[in-house]
Structure formats: structure tokens, C-alpha cells
Amino acid sequence: MSPAEFGRSGDRDDRDEEPLDDTLLDADLFDSPDLDPPSPRRPVDSSTPPLEVADEDLDGLRYDAAGMPVGPRRVLPLPDEPSPLAARYLFPTEKYRGEWRRHWIHLMPEFVIGVLATFIMGYVSGMLASNGSEPATAAVVVGWLLVLGWVGWRVMDWFFDRFILTNKRVMVVSGVVTRKVAMMPLLRVTDMKYEQSPMGRMLNYGTFVLESAGQDQALREIKHLPDPNELYLQVVEEMYEPDAVQARVEGEEETASSPSAVNDA
């Protein structure tokens, strides 16, 4: 190897062994503030104001330990006037708070029976018609009509079935021809809970269980009520904070009767 070549190779080895300068790396690669993370050598600029997020922007984004969303509860609106069905069971000094039909899941057995009866009637009547048995086919059709009539009767019974809440008591009115009215004063309720199955949580219905000091209870278990959480809170609020409920009702009435609300209407 010639001296010139040896000298060039020695210079190259010396350059390879030189350590890299960290300051040069920072200046070349991380000069942009978007790429350079905060470090002791480059502190965060304190002049930039922190991002402020309002609490209402986080509604629906908070979750509890059970995985349920946490936020302000929804208050069910209080209706102005009871229906004619409920009004006939209220005394004059009683303050009406609302009435609810049972959830549509209450009619699920009737709907299933009606659908199965329709398929079975179609299959059996087709077989009997192919064999030329007209009396048997007519009997099957009559039986199917009776089943549909029973389903219609159950739907009508569900329509007139109401859960009624006042400032004094809870009532359940049921029946089309034979009317049944079961009630329990709120002052006698010693314990109240509601239960929700997995299906009830998905479809938003539940069962209320009322306990009182007496042994014989005309009203204890009420199944398939809609919006059970909001309805439960409304009943409990009526039991323990009736003045707050009345104040909210009066506030809604004043808002509705204000000149601005009348002009908007």
C-alpha cells in the first residue's frame, strides 16, 4: 500500500471513530416543535394556554366501574292532564304526576302464539284441503280465528292497563270488562326496588317490587314498566322530596305561561 493510500485510509478511520454530537442531532432532526418532545433541555412553552373542556362536552363519555355511562339523569316530563281513564280514579285534592302503559314486551307471548297459530293453520289446512276434508278445514280456520280474537283481546287489555303515579299513591288499573284497581299509598311504602334482566336492559324495561308495613298488599310486583330507572327516581323523589317536585311543576307552568312562550306559540 502506498503512503498516500495509507494516509487516506487513516483519515477515514479517524472520521468514523468521532462521536456524534447530541446537540447537532437535536438541531437537525428535532428542530420542529411538532417533532421535538418535551425534555429537560427543551422545556415546554408555558405561554401556551391549556386546553379547556367544558363538562357538558364530556356528557356521555364518562363511565362507571360497571361500564355504564355517567351523566346528568334524564327527568321524565310531567304531563299536564290525566287521561279520562286515569282521571276517574283520582280524588280532587290529589296531584297527578303521570301514567304509563307497560312495555310492548308484555305482549310478546301473545304475538308468538298468534304467529305460530298462523303457520300451523296454514300447514294443516293445506293438508286437509288436498285430501278433500272440507269440514276439518273449516274447523281449523275457526280455531285460528279464535286464537286471533284472543290475541286482539290481550292487546286491548294491554292498551287499558296503566301504571299511575300521584303525590299520594301509586295505582295499577287493568281490565277491559272486569276493571281492577290496585293501589298503595306512598307513605306506606317501606322499600322499593326494580329489577332488570339482560333483555330488559337492552329493551329498557323492568319490574318494580314494592314492600309495605302491612302483610296483605294489593300491589306488590309490577312487571314490564318502561324507562325503569327514570321512573324509579321519579317515584322515589315523590316519596322523599315532594316539595322539590311541586316546585319543578310550578316552574314549568310559569315558563309555559310566560309572555315569551305565548308569543312563540
UniProtKB/TrEMBL annotation:
Entry annotated with the keyword Membrane: yes
Region (Disordered): 1-56, 246-265
Transmembrane segments: 104-124, 136-153
Composition-biased stretches (Acidic residues): 14-34
Xref: Pfam families: bPH_2
Keywords in alphabetical order: Membrane, Transmembrane, Transmembrane helix
Comp. bias regions, Polar residues: 256-265
Keyword Transmembrane helix belongs to the record: yes
Domain YdbS-like PH as annotated: residue spans: 158-232
Name of the protein: Membrane protein YdbS with pleckstrin-like domain
Organism: Phytomonospora endophytica
